[in-house]
Design goal:
single chain, 10 strands, 43% helix, 14 helices, eight-stranded mixed sheet, 330 residues
Amino acid sequence: MASGEFTEEEQGRYDRQIRLWGIEAQQRMRNATILVVRLRGTATETIKNIVLAGIGKLILVDADDVKEEDLGAGFFFRDDDVGKKRVDAAKARIENLNPLVTVETVPNFNVLNNQNFESTVNGVDLVCITEWDRDDLVRLNIICRRSRKPFYSGGTYGLLGYIFCDLLDHNYISPDRSSPKDVPKSIQMKVSYPSLQDALRHRWSLLSKRQTKELNPASVFAILALWRFQSIQKRLPIGAQDVGELQQIADALVSEADVNKQVITTVPHSLIESVTMTAVHEFSPVCAIVGGLLAQDILKTLAAREPPIANFLTFDGNTGGASVCKLSMS
């Protein structure tokens, strides 16, 4: 959508946001083109929120058909959509959320091939890839960095979920905590993000015992272990036969990262068992929370009004808690 004065319809629809973030922030959202890859539970919630907030254009990529298991967390789908392409089944319902947003669908994954992806990324403002494997996320993130495009990834594994973002050199406006309460001021902030490849090399040795505990390292390393398992086996764990291997991988990652041994030397076996049994399944409440947080952060980045995630958030549905780790960030 072209920039310019807001129409009466836009002013009415986005009135609350304009008052909250300001007209310039809403203008940035209105002019933004967002690429979202894979329409499962996490992306469903994310898309709902960013479309309602008033982005300009959504490009949605997914080659898969709607399956019965998609009906739980995928509220864009109905029973009679089973067997149809996900993007085809969802397009009209996404458009109905906000007719002011342009929705473009791509019913195949060819766009993720290196040359095609680079060309596509050059035409968007932000990339969000959900429910994807680690090795491809690293590859796609590198392409986004070459094109200087902010990159998000997110997903759920049963009761666990994560969000990673690489926002390059990100500028935003933040309240000046040093100013008097009766004379509020804002200041310009800048933060530099590492690539996913560099984030995965993070060492925890500089954190105190208390700082390490606060980050819930068990859930962090459970997700990182799932990524490494998937890289090795080309699939997620599917049952009891995979518990031992996932436990070995998780504990090796804890050791490699030099985590404070007073906090954790092994990821709890009960967590590994739970993850192994549920990783391939989606739970609607977990998707709603992770997808909601992902959408909120994308909007923060577009609005440049508040600090975004820095840079790896994990959600543990077993405890209902989320924590944010600065992986390879100062």
